[in-house]
């Protein structure tokens, strides 16, 4: 049975099929309105979420299906000590597909071993967030018209930023892509990702100042410094405002830059940037719903 646990498990051709299908849903939503009648999505969110949970639920509803689930661990039997494996064995009896967010890295992979329905990793700790990557890929393809030959800057918390880890893994497979990794020393990407890029001969540089490199970028992917991943509040306070994209900094970039952010944001993009045509983070939010519709179609078609 097919799951969506890690974007690396999905081929370029499969990702293209998802993007093509999402484009088709955007163009002809009525063709898909009854595609999932009598099917149910369970959203098991052990960690807070606005976009991922609601877009999965909206996606299933727009396909004619139904949704059930919980939005915090405290309202499920996890609060009584139930394991992830027992929870998914139970929920598999009620739903056709499960989207799971969990603070522990690898929890959706464990879930997939015990589930009789497809599992979607909706974010696992500071590890991966493959369906955010689906939203990012469609946004890049629609904004740039291509996924090849791009200079992509990732800025902020690259250590714990699971959306960065998944997008970097996905984009490493496209020809002519170069990465500029902009972070404080303490928040550089994990060593395993650096090793993967070196092995695959993907060009990248690591810098600390956004102003020094912004002009060279086709895409700037801003991220939040995540309070919930720090062990020490003092370190969070010291690093949280390391990067703030405002109109002055954006003026240094070229006119075709695309600014992305998985959201939620705190201070790292000034609201004054939102009206700039280069700001595409709310398009990402919308495209995420269509990509999740395409993913539900693919996973349930593969299961049938
Ligand atoms: N991008 C993202 O995962 O947002 P949420 O935490 O609101 O789901």
Spell out the CATH superfamily of the largest domain: Aspartate/ornithine carbamoyltransferase
Class from secondary-structure proportions: alpha/beta
Major sheet strand order: 7-6-5-8-9
Radius of gyration: 19 Å
Commentary on this structure:
The longest helix is centred in the last third of the chain and has 23 residues, at 281-303. The protein has 11 helices and 9 strands. 38% of the residues lie in helices and 14% in strands. The protein has 2 domains: 7-128 and 286-303, 3-Layer(aba) Sandwich (Rossmann fold), CATH 3.40.50; 130-284, 3-Layer(aba) Sandwich (Rossmann fold). With 304 residues, it is α/β, with parallel strands linked by helices. The chain has helices at 12-27, 51-62, 84-91, 107-114, 130-144, 162-171, 191-199, 210-213, 233-239, 247-250, 281-303; strands at 40-45, 66-70, 97-102, 119-124, 151-155, 178-182, 204-207, 219-222, 258-260. Helix 5 packs across helix 6 and helix 5 packs across helix 11. Helix 2 links the parallel strand 1 (40-45) and strand 2 (66-70). The strands form 2 sheets. It has a 5-stranded parallel beta sheet with strand order 7-6-5-8-9, with helices on one face. The chain has a 4-stranded parallel beta sheet with strand order 2-1-3-4, sandwiched between helices. The protein binds phosphoric acid mono(formamide)ester (CP). Phosphoric acid mono(formamide)ester binds next to helix 2.
